[in-house]
Amino acid sequence: AAEDFDAVVAANGAEMLTLPIPGADKDKLVYALEAFEHPERLGERVVVIGGGEVGVETALHIAKKGHHTTVVEMRDRLSADSTAIHYYSMFQEAWEAEPNFHGITGVKVARIEPNAVVYTDKDGKEHALEADSVVMCAGRVPRETEALAFYGSAPEFYMIGDCKKPASVQQGNRHAWSVANRI
Q: For strand 156-159 and strand 29-31, is the pairing parallel, antiparallel, or unpaired?
């Protein structure tokens, strides 16, 4: 407010969500961004919890780096939140062509053990996936409160990106472009 700006755009992101899964100790988990920034934290066998667009993109990246990667997803298909036109089919072709990538859908993670992720299938039967590393990609929580601290500091105030609603990079770019055109 002291700077007398004409507009303030809050784009301060979101926090990664950790599901309340027994054994999901934050110190033992790797999150999507960390998997890209610190690949040395990943073992040979990686289980990615969460098969939305971010989880599948992360898993595909990890698999292409030579790790045996399995995505576990509650919904009935991987990357169900991806843009249906053009992108989904190309994305699906990419993960199906990667031999180190595997996806399991329609399941729920029951617990994380020291060297495995245990999940239940639709019939309630438990299965264990060997895991040297676990990557949590189960969503994000907006940093809305922090963004709203800037409200009223300029005649125009906008919240964009994940601080308003977690979204894909494509969606975030479109929203930012829209707000920039209004200013």
A: unpaired
CA 151 to mean position of chain CA atoms? 28
Banded model confidence at residue 86, pLDDT cuts 50, 70, 90: low
Per the DSSP assignment, residues forming a β-bridge with 49 are 72, 136
Query: What pTM, to 2 d.p., does this model score?
Result: 0.83
Closest CA to 29 of 50, 56, 60, 57: 50
Per residue, the 3-state secondary structure of the chain, as one string, reads CCCCCCEEEECCCEEECCCCCCCCCCCCEEEHHHHHHCHHHCCCEEEEECCCHHHHHHHHHHHHCCCEEEEEECCCCCCCCCCCCCHHHHHHHHHHHCCCEEEEECCEEEEEECCEEEEECCCCCEEEEECCEEEECCCEEECHHHHHCCCCCCCEEEECHHHCCCCCHHHHHHHHHHHHHHC
Reported as a single tens digit per residue, the pLDDT across 35-79 is 999 999 999 999 999 999 889 999 999 999 999 999 999 999 999
Question: Can you tell me the distance from the alpha carbon of 23 to that of 109, in angstroms, rounded to the nearest whole number?
Answer: 11
